[in-house]
Design a protein that fits this description.
Structural class: alpha/beta
CATH superfamily of the largest domain: Ribonuclease H-like superfamily/Ribonuclease H
Shape: elongated
Strand content: 15-25%
Helix content: 40-55%
Order of helices and strands: HEEEEEEEHHHEEEHEHEHHHHHHHHHHH
Number of helices: 17
Protein name: Transposase IS204/IS1001/IS1096/IS1165 DDE domain-containing protein
InterPro entries: Transpos_ISL3, Transposase_DDE, Transposase_HTH, Transposase_Znf
Number of domains: 4
CATH topology of the largest domain: Nucleotidyltransferase, domain 5
Number of strands: 12
Largest sheet: 5 strands, mixed
Pfam families: DDE_Tnp_ISL3 (PF01610), HTH_Tnp_ISL3 (PF13542), Zn_ribbon_ISL3 (PF14690)
Radius of gyration: 30 Å
Bound molecules: zinc ion
């Protein structure tokens, strides 16, 4: 086997294509290897429309970047014909080593995608020595193509969460199939609320699913989400995340603390202590003494903190019935306490939120759907954010969420091996 045969094999060339010429240029840095591919003179080529063997009408010179040959950049050159089909006229043929419109060979793109699944896009672009902009174009092509093959016909329970594409930026709403153990993300869209739910409903229908089959949605309590579910997933019961209940109370607690501090003053480390969980063992001694001081004193912040902490009593309810009973009694006791101190007004709002969504909160005992999955999403979002670093926009962030968190990454591996 000579060098030409080895390279032909490496390129996966088939008739009528043959490697005609190769040239290693060591005068440039990095060195480049140019491979010239041709078809035998007088070859027939399949019409891209009907596959009928046709004669070439004319040729155009094209170049593709190929995988490095050791440390040398490698380029593939070919004269690509247009066929003249009696039925379809003059058409440019597709070559077997690259997809239409791409300046890279399929092998190059596959290598790029394998790397992008494992490391930040910017790092991959440096390693492959192409611009990150071009690499992102490859990523978007393959993610889009694999998304097209996503089968959502079995989706019946859905989790919804939102995250900022980066700090202070627009939101991205992510939908999970709560029944999928691995790679649960099935849809991600810029924006949030009702529009996001509507977009999901349309996406589901376009991928073999049926919005009417969705019987359960786990989400937060934002009115926009809830009205979106009512309208676009009409058969779904809503389960509210426990995580979001606690979040609501924590936010209101912080309002009380700020207001009271403005009026009376508090130890400085208090804010951080308050925002941490009581179970958290990572409190500094200073925070711990601040907490002790807090519990001992009669401040509104201390009361608010107790109100928030007692949510655990509801959370520990063994049955839906018990949960309902505990919520009713918790609300009764806490509402009475709140009405006695005007500084506690924000906590009254948190209690009203809980009261309003009590049915949806109790559903977590019935549906068996917990938000552990949703909370686990934070890790995914962080990973996606760091992979998309350097050329950040929502579309890139979303492409990374799909690649890491959805079945798209695996579909790509399967497609590659066939
Ligand atoms: Zn034809």
């Amino acid at each position: 086997m000579d060098g030409t045969q080895i390279l032909t094999l490496g390129l996966g060339l088939e008739a009528p294509w043959i490697l005609k010429n190769q040239y290693l240029d060591t005068a440039v840095s990095p060195h480049r290897l140019d491979l010239y591919v041709e078809a035998e003179r007088g070859s027939l080529y399949p019409c891209p429309e009907c596959g009928k063997a046709c004669q070439a009408h004319d040729f155009a010179d094209k170049t593709w970047r190929h995988l490095n040959f050791f440390q040398h950049h490698c380029y593939l050159h070919a004269r690509v014909p247009r066929t003249k089909c009696p039925d379809h006229g003059v058409k440019r043929i597709e070559v077997p080593w690259a997809r239409p419109g791409s300046d890279f060979t399929l092998l190059f793109e596959q290598a790029a995608m394998s790397l992008v699944k494992e490391m930040p896009v910017l790092a991959v672009s440096r390693q492959l020595e192409i611009s990150d902009k071009r690499l992102w174009r490859i990523v978007h092509h393959y993610v889009g193509r694999m998304l097209g093959e996503l089968d959502l016909s079995k989706v019946v329970t859905v989790g919804v969460d939102e995250t900022a594409s980066r700090r202070g930026h627009r939101y991205v709403t992510v939908f999970l199939d709560m029944q999928r153990k691995r790679e649960p993300v099935i849809f991600a869209v810029p924006g949030c609320g009702k529009d996001a739910i509507q977009a999901f409903s349309a996406f589901l229908a376009a991928h073999g699913g049926d919005p009417n089959n969705v019987v359960e949605v786990v989400c937060d309590m934002s009115p926009a989400f809830l009205s979106g579910v009512t309208e676009h997933l009409p058969k779904a019961e809503v389960t509210v995340d426990w995580f979001h209940i606690v979040q609501t109370f924590t936010k209101r607690l912080d309002e009380v603390r700020k207001k009271e501090r403005r009026e009376q003053g508090h130890p400085k480390s208090l804010r951080w202590a308050l925002l941490k969980n009581l179970d958290n063992k990572n409190l500094t001694p200073k925070q711990l003494s601040a907490l002790q001081e807090l519990v001992a004193d009669q401040s509104a912040t201390a009361d608010a903190w107790v109100i928030k902490e007692k949510l655990r009593w509801i959370q520990k309810a063994p049955t839906p019935r018990a949960a309902r009973w505990r919520i009713t009694n918790y609300l009764k006791v806490m509402q009475a306490a709140v009405s006695e101190k005007s500084l506690l007004k924000p906590m009254g709002k948190a209690l009203a939120t809980l009261e309003r969504h009590a049915d949806a909160v109790v559903r977590r005992w019935l549906s068996g759907l917990t938000n552990a999955r949703l909370e686990g999403m934070n890790g995914l979002f962080q990973a996606a954010r760091s992979r998309a670093r350097g050329y950040r926009n929502e579309a890139n962030f979303i492409a990374m969420i799909y690649l890491i968190g959805s079945p798209v990454g695996r579909l790509f591996d399967q497609a590659k091996s066939t």
